[in-house]
Amino acid sequence: MKILVTGGAGYIGSHTVRALLGAGHSVVVLDNLSSGHAQALPEGVPLVKADLLDQAAVQEALSVHQPDAVVHFAALIEVGESMSQPGRYYRNNVVGSLNLLTAIAQTRKIPIVFSSTAALYGDAEVSPIPEDAPKQPTSVYGETKLMTEQMIQAFERAHGIRSIRLRYFNVCGAVPDGSIGEDHVNKTHLIELALLTALGQREKMMIYGDDYPTRDGTCIRDYIHVLDLAQAHVLAVEALAQGAGSSAYNVGLGHGFTVREVLDAVDAVIEGSDYAPLTRELAPRRAGDPPSLVADSSSIQQSLGWKPEYVDLQGIIQTAWEWHRTHPHGFQD
Ligand SMILES: NC(=O)c1ccc[n+]([C@@H]2O[C@H](COP(=O)([O-])OP(=O)(O)OC[C@H]3O[C@@H](n4cnc5c(N)ncnc54)[C@H](O)[C@@H]3O)[C@@H](O)[C@H]2O)c1
Ligand SMILES: O=c1ccn([C@@H]2O[C@H](COP(=O)(O)OP(=O)(O)O[C@H]3O[C@H](CO)[C@@H](O)[C@H](O)[C@H]3O)[C@@H](O)[C@H]2O)c(=O)[nH]1
């Protein structure tokens, strides 16, 4: 199959592009490079440098490349920033997705795999969280993803566009050979920041709040390796190609770690090297952060046969460390 990957030059997108190629598919990437890196793409993968807000450019990409399916990653992704810049988030994530859906509806009505998020669930009352838990996002970012899921379903009802919406929990890690990895323009993710702090690029790690109702007072998240997530996309695209109906699946490991436990795991990974343990400082809560997000992923395991290979947090962090240690300035190195 030929797959159009929006946001394919980004962190998860570039790992998924490799996984799709590895599964024998061909790929075209559409990305405005606002936070992605052309260097993250394997040689020979066509890159359409375009913005989803440019409806005509999106339509043209679909007409020229005639893909069989779309995997839609392109979005702004920061929970905290979405609270202070809501307009940017609604415009980029909701209007951008609307443009893509409109273009699909006007051309080939191909199926779509969408990057959704655990942030849909907000302050979840059950843990691990099943897909039918109430959707009550605590951030604008989460709202933009919920709105996009709703638009996708409306476009299915009106135009027959099938979808698999993958609700990722916290994505981390890198290909074990350290050749590509996480290099977000604004660094906000816990593990990326901790490893850059270990490399001496930041003085200390801030812990955003220790008064949450969790075992040590810091937020709990479910950390999933980017390669396991990439494999979920391959399975989803292939299922849709074989005629699968639309669904939404959580993608996570099913157990969560507190912020302090993650920082301990980072210290354990760097222990014995020339790098000092992390200096930690308590800071106020970050707006929009729910206390705990842990996935019930049994549905994707049963329906698509997905099975995560990276189940040990230190092992996952080790792969990210390999990338950051060998590329301390990301794709600039
Ligand atoms: N990283 C996580 O932990 C996580 C968790 C849940 C969901 N997600 C979702 O996964 C997707 C990918 O996240 P990521 O961590 O790889 O982020 P990323 O910033 O590395 O990738 C996003 C890509 O989309 C591109 N992009 C953004 N807006 C665009 C637009 N208007 N037009 C064209 N291209 C545009 C960027 O240049 C970038 O290459 C996002 O949709 C995000 O919401 C990420
Ligand atoms: O320097 C830091 C950075 C983060 N945190 C905390 O660590 C946890 C994880 O934060 P982060 O790595 O920024 O991820 P999330 O805010 O949980 O969001 C990620 O995970 C979501 C799914 O759960 C995705 O939807 C988002 O796109 C993605 O950014 C949160 O409790 C943060 O408050 C700190 O304490 N200090």
From TrEMBL:
Molecular-function GO term, any one: UDP-glucose 4-epimerase activity
Pfam families of this UniProt entry? Epimerase
Q: What is the lineage of its organism?
A: Bacteria, Thermotogati, Deinococcota, Deinococci, Deinococcales
Q: Which reaction does it catalyse?
A: UDP-alpha-D-glucose = UDP-alpha-D-galactose
Question: Which pathway does the record list?
Answer: Carbohydrate metabolism; galactose metabolism
Q: Which cofactor does it need?
A: NAD(+)
This chain belongs to which protein, by name? UDP-glucose 4-epimerase
Q: EC number(s) on record?
A: 5.1.3.2
Q: Quaternary state and partners of this protein?
A: Homodimer.
Name all NAD-dependent epimerase/dehydratase domain ranges.
3-252
Which source organism? Deinococcus ruber
Keyword annotations of the record? Carbohydrate metabolism, Isomerase, NAD
Q: Which family does it belong to?
A: Belongs to the NAD(P)-dependent epimerase/dehydratase family.
> What InterPro entries is this protein classified in?
Epimerase_deHydtase, NAD(P)-bd_dom_sf, UDP_G4E
Q: Which GO terms describe its biological process?
A: galactose catabolic process via UDP-galactose, Leloir pathway
